[in-house]
Amino acid sequence: MKNDQVIELKPKELELMKYFMQHVNKIVSKEKLYDTVWREDYFGSDNTVMVHIRRLRE
Predict the structure, then answer these.
(1) Residue 44 CB contacts under 8 Å (≥ 6 apart), including other chains
(2) What's the first-to-final CA gap in the chain, in angstroms?
(3) Which residues contact 13 (CB under 8 A, 6 or more apart)?
């Protein structure tokens, strides 16, 4: 909730949030997030992880 409103997350955003909650105070690379949440190999040129993190921060 934010400002008494429920925030709906997309499936990947929810998985990303769960991962962050399970790894509090840990530094995690984009590669690790991509491997764990998207379950695909990371090639370094995709900005998907950062876009999802930005949406969570908003």
Answers:
(1) 31
(2) 12
(3) 52, 55, 56
Each residue's pLDDT tens digit, 3-21: 888 889 999 999 999 999 9
Contact 31, 42 (CB under 8 A): yes
Q: What is the pTM of this model?
A: 0.78
DSSP for the chain reads: -BTTBPPP--HHHHHHHHHHHHTTT----HHHHIIIII-S---S---HHHHHHHHHH-
> In the structure encoding, which two tokens stand for residue 37, read together?
């949440």
